[in-house]
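To the team - zinc ion complex, inputs and output below.
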Amino acid sequence: MQKKSILIVLLLIILSSYFVYAYSAKEFLQDYKELITGKAVQENKGGLFEEIVDFFKSLFGKKNVGADIRREQDKEVSQLNEQLVYLNEKYQQIYNKQNLDELVEINNKRKQKTIELMQKDPNEALKLVFDENERNKFPLEVQKDMEEKIVQEGKLEIRYADDFENPKNSKYYYDIIDDNFNKINVYPNKNINLVSNSRVEINGYKLENNLLVDVNNENLQILSLNEKAEETNENLGEQRTIVILMDYVDENNVLYPTISREDAQKAIFEEANDYYKENSYGKTWLTGNIVGPYKTTKPCSEYESIKLADKDVNFQNYERIIIFYPFYLRQNNICNIGGWGYDGISSLGKNYWSTEDGLISASYSLNLRKDLWVTGHELGHQFGVMHANLLDCNNLGYFEPDLCNLDYYGDPFDIMGNEGTRSRGLNPHLNAYNKEVIGYLSEEEIINQIEGEFDLKPIELGGDGIKLIKIPMPNKIYEYSLEYRQPIGFDKDIDDKLYDGVLLHITMPWHGADTSLYYPKDITIKPGEVFEDHSDNDVKIKVLSAYGSYAKVNIESKIQPFSRLDGILIEPKWGFIETLPNTINTIKLSIHNTGVIKAENIIAKLYRYEFIIVNNSKNGATEYIEELLSEENFGNLDAGEYKIIGLRYNTDEPRYNKYLIKINSENNFNEDGIKLRFTNRVSYEGAYLSLANFYLRDEFNTRLDKPPKVNQKILLIVDIYNQGLETAQNSTLSIYEAERTCNPYGCNYQPIGKIFETTRDLFKDLNREVFYNLEYTPRKSGKTYLTLELNHPNNRNPQKEFYYEFDVQPNKRPSSIKEKYER
Ligand SMILES: [Zn+2]
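Output:
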């Protein structure tokens, strides 16, 4: 037994060193200069994050998890695919109901299996999707239940499930919220490392409510990032929190109670509140209420929890949601994802929720433990910070990604990592970088520097002084962050070695990324010690002294002084705005000089742009057309400073208008500057209904290639869209047979009998059409005229009636379709 486990350990070491070697040699150390200096951070953030996280995750050898289950799965889907193609060929030869039914049945089976595969293994699912050409070969009845290549724009919602026992099982979840607040599950084949509420355009395969994405720069366009804006910070001040307690009832009707109200009060409004109050220097505190327990048979469902609490809670009064389910569900891995249990799950930042009190924006956590190391950690995610890892570089004394191993969650000195200290009941402060991300540090407490002597104040205390020194590394994907810790408050009794020097973190020059603590030799760089960076930047960090109230640090480097502009969109908030034609709008931006010298002559240019699809192939290439609308000079910006700027533009006709802002300065390190995008949906007032399309198909939903015959059952396809700002509720569509009378001035269509009427809600959306499939059997031959009426009290489109005409051919023998095919 022991021998066996030693063998396994050895094997793991060999395997993991293979991954270290394979990844770092091939990808991590390849020349990132192009990415950083060229297209750079703004455009390629997603890609870069991904590479880094992939690198970190690859160190675990995460790749083969659940491979056996998958093999079974994809075999099933590929068999169903083959069956479907075969049945379709059969149906294309003989159009009959039996063949169609058979096709529909197999397709439904395939749909379910494909959705399961999308969830479990997006990479495999991508191999088994039908492309557009293949899909078009099937009848419409089948196509509607097949994946469809679409472009989906919306706000990304990100959740993270933490399994502290087996960190490698921890996992991201993604949803995209469209502009009508519909939620679509996103299954990317790689992690999308952005912060929740970033606005994106995703090119993927949609099946029901699921979107499968092959993540690359073509398929994932970042339209705007959600980062900390200088003007408003939702993470500061009172955090109105609702705690929902959920009891679990299993299939044998046994009740497993969650924690008591007293325990919940203590866990959230005492312990977690104290923790965040201290971490934020009194800038953040939690207030609120506890409701429940509610009994449920659904384990770990945030939707179920919110639904049950809805009758007791006015969700408009809260922006943080904390749900407790019993620990029993954790012990038995009943709350799990693909078989892996978790301790807590959280949104990274806020999501939208539909409640009885209306649409709300709130972050949430679902906890299976009441300990602060879980509740506090999950709240960290709610405030937008990621994990604190530990980089083990084998006592190198310098940082060389190629030679380091990553211990996920392994930073013992941050609640976002905390491995090692939590077993002792200790919950150290968030590191300085994480405090910056949440917004606890002011501009004066953070510096970007490449050389000089500085005093670092302990991060546990508020007030004046530098808490975070960042050393930007112009030609690297990481930077260094320095901080100083003292045994104060939550940082008391952690480890004596933590307090006698300066801590070094490897961090990223943008938000939403993990941090990694690096031990040069011991935990800190101690007085008299020097950390040396062996890159071209040749950074030397020397700690001169570290006494209780401050540490003195000297930095030397060969980095050339540079300015570097970074920017985010403040308004429109999620990169999306709805307006009416001919209105003047103002865009608000926050620009930040993350370099070390003044950025000179900052020029902002506003463009309208469009993507044009060049060809319709599976990986349809797009072309990009831009038109300059305005240009303005915003002067200079000192190193480390923010500036809020406004740009005005005038909207034109109703449609989706896409805008691009480019900001650059004369001496910006990133030559391409900042690029930010947003969309303006210019709509009509009220509801504005129009007919998009009206055409005929046969009863099997196949395109008619010749006019229908008398008594032949056909389908009228009516396709309507609403270009207004409001939903057209209960809009009525009526179709009449009509007679035409013409005079020299034109023709007139007189309705003679109603053949169809239906009522439904038509949502506002310029791009989305609503289809009606209506059955109709023409009774006489010759020209047939139909009129169509769209009625809605709020419809502002003056054109309410539409006409359609087509020929009907005589059919001598009264025969049914069935007879025709049986002959
Ligand atoms: Zn976590």
